[in-house]
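REVIEWER CHECKLIST
Item 1: Sequence provided? yes
Item 2: Single chain? yes
Item 3: Sequence as submitted:
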Amino acid sequence: MSAKTRKQFFKVFWIVVGVVCFLIMMFPLYWMISCSLKTESEIFARPPYYFPPNPNLDAYITQLSNVEQFPIINSFKNSMIISLATMAISVVLSTMASYGLARFNIKGKNLIIFLFLVSQMLPQVFTLVPDFIIFKSVGIYNTYWAPIFANCTVAIPFSILMLRTYFLSIPKEVDDAALIDGCNHFQSFLKIMMPMASTGIVVSFVFSFLFGYADMMFSLTFINDSRMWPVTTGIYNVVGRYGIEWSRAMAFGCLAVAPVVLIFLLMERYIVEGLASGAVKG
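Item 4: Structure as written out by the authors:
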């Protein structure tokens, strides 16, 4: 086999492997959509129907109309409150913190960065008990603020570690030029550094939002009032109470992932560019 033929063979081989892996990863999402369009008997039919024989939207209509049994609209509202607040707090704090860690000689800076990295490795369940005690003590237990602050403890370290690489990649001469032109450090950060790191900041916005939107454990632990639960906890509630009605549970899941899919479709270019740039520059 010639070198050219061998190269073409491996190229086709890795394409096939990539397509197979993509289909395996996407099959659960497809199955959820497919089951949401079936009746209960069609879902449990043997042999299974890989395509809905008689597609219908009954499960979606039930989800959106029967708000007392399936409060999905209220769950979406709760998710937006938690996600947007998590995003706002995380991006503001992590942007300033990452700039400081990248530009200033701070005592113990390497230890701080190491602790941020360790926090990303620890399972979130380790923080439940201390967070519960703190939130109970300060009086924010069973409020939106409890899961918001808990999600920020995950989103902020991630954003700092990512954004720091962007600020490190910007030459220090840019800071010096800004100071010569009359800017102080804050003005330089606001008017020059943030626009230059805008791609990374967009990625931070997206992932901070998704950290808050995808949370179930914090909300379920720190909020007792089911009327304040987000959509992820609502899915848990639906399956727990009405586990037999899988078509409705699958419809709930499809509606829940729709905002995430929409965000990735709209922001795909920025997300890919931001993550790739951060990896190269870091």
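Item 5: Key structural point noted by reviewer: The radius of gyration is 23 Å.
Item 6: Recommendation: ____
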